[in-house]
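Readers of this paper often ask what the protein records in our data store actually look like. Such a record has a labelled line for the sequence and another for the backbone structure tokens. Nothing more is needed to write down the fold, since each code stands for a local backbone conformation. The record that follows is passed on verbatim for readers who wish to inspect the format.
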Amino acid sequence: MSAAKLNADLAARVATNAAKPKPAAPPAVDLDDETRAFETFLGYEGEVQRTVRALLERGPAASPKGWRERQRGRDLFTLLGMEEATRNTAFLVALQTKPLLRPAQGRALKSYVILCDAMLNKLMPRIPSMARGVAPFVSAYLSTVSQHRDLAKMAFPDGISRGF
């Protein structure tokens, strides 16, 4: 490949990344107030849902032309849908622990954090090989999930998050 082609590809990638949706920064959390930290974790789910909606609206149609590329795009969106359904279920379990004792809440949050870590480790390496129309949205989604995971760590009862 020529240097000019590589430079053009790099310029196109930079322009695409500049246009990608930026997730909202998570609100500042008072680490000393576990209740407020848990409420912030619960409230940030709306941002995660907005980001995943923007991603899934892209659909496999954003994949490049060609049968193999479209199939790869469908496979990616199937994987993303399954991962989001699993993450959402883990979030709902954590949400249901709100009125329960702290140990139950801690276990649910720990499970959520572990699930998010596994999801991020599985999907992050795939971003460079994704279609240009999809990769920025996947990156924004994973960034939002990462921030949500960090809020879950801050919401751990009895300061468990510091030793997680």
Notes: Residues 67-96 form the longest helix (30 residues).
